[in-house]
Amino acid sequence: MTLRTLSPAEARVLGTLMEKARTVPDSYPLSLNTLTLGCNQKTSRDPLMSLTESQVQDALDSLKLLSLVFESSGSRVARWEHNFQRVLGVPEQSAVLLGLLMLRGPQTAGELRINSERWYRFADISSVDAFLEELQDRPAEKGGALVAKLPRAPGAREQRWAQLLCGPVDTNTPFAAAEPAGVSLDDARRLETRLRSLEDEVGTLRQTLESLLEQLGMSQPGQPK
Description:
Structural class: mainly alpha
Shape: globular
CATH superfamily of the largest domain: Winged helix-like DNA-binding domain superfamily/Winged helix DNA-binding domain
Number of helices: 8
Radius of gyration: 18 Å
Mean pLDDT: 86
Low-confidence stretches: 175-184
Strand content: 5-15%
Largest sheet: 3 strands, antiparallel
Strand order of the largest sheet: 1-3-2
CATH class of the largest domain: Mainly Alpha
Number of strands: 6
Number of domains: 2
Helix content: 40-55%
CATH topology of the largest domain: Arc Repressor Mutant, subunit A
Order of helices and strands: HEHHEEHHEHHEEH
């Protein structure tokens, strides 16, 4: 299926639903409040955003018209689910990689493998590469490429991949990153990826607590009752 270009807000909302479906299934589908918190969390997000509930709702309404999300029934509070894999017609592994790229921006196959551990466990980097190559070589009759490989950054051994759901990227401009003194760029990236993984675990625990408090009708610590 060929989709129109998604806005950054739509991609963030869709990616967050895809993430939470896998990392906090007990809290899924998500309410508007919980989804907004997930979109704006300070970990595992690049770039950081500060979306309002109104902006998230507008994104949901737009994604619903594309059949990418739908509202669950049987709950007092409106809750939302994604329908990404079925609409795009891609396997689970490809959906995971696209979700990560929507949430965290361009990443190498190695970074994607590490960052996907709580979503899906890839056997090795070569399997990640295989699914990325498949997404890049997607035929026109199925909607065309969904990812693009970026030029290698100075000092880096691996190239980064970017998603194309939000439009084409400039593959002629390599991803620039400052290299700390005495530390290779790859080492710095591995440390950054490990830090992000730990931050992600803390963020998920916080998200689960917030969802539980919401279900119990209790206010969050530090907020008025």
